[in-house]
Amino acid sequence: MSLRSTRGRALGALLIVLVGTMAVGCMPSGGMGNPGWTVVAAENGAVYAAMATGRVVALDAANPGEELWAYPQKSAESGGIGCSIAKPAGPAQDRPLDAVYGLPVLTDKLLILASYDRHLYAFEKDSGRIAWNSGEDAATDAVIGGVTLYDGIAYFGSSDHRVYAWDIATQALVWDTPFETEDWVWGAPAVDEARVYVGSMDHR
Prior knowledge:
Elements: H1 3-25, E1 39-43, E2 46-50, E3 56-60, E4 67-71, E5 74-78, E6 84-88, E7 105-106, E8 110-114, E9 120-124, E10 130-133, E11 148-150, E12 153-157, E13 162-167, E14 172-173, E15 179-180, E16 190-191, E17 196-197
């Protein structure tokens, strides 16, 4: 093997290590683990969005680009080599959400989102503060589809093959045993006064 070839391989390996180090340095610590996509809902002149970056924002529809509030508040902090990223300030619960795929749900006072981390999050619509977080009590696997709200109950499916009902007033599960399908439930349910309708990856 020639000296030139050896040097070329060494430089290539060094470049890979350098790029990897920069990428790790640019990753937000303790933040979003899975990128989602941007989903929006609008009401009374405000547009609410969960961004693919894990941020949740309320925008003034009359003044595009003007934020009414944002979660989390961000402060500039150095990341890795030659990289500056925005890292959320404050305690651990004030960090970007994990991936959100389902549309936001709006009530009189709340913005409700389901996350890949299997939590439900409720934000105060006027301030962006988290009103409550279901923690580990909601589902046992990722929630991909959105939430359907009916008569104060949030219905949603999960990657654990189950469909859940969550009371947003008491912040607790309604059903003693969630409904089970034979595969992932990745779409938002439809609900009427008598039934909950859901599609599953089990083709039913």
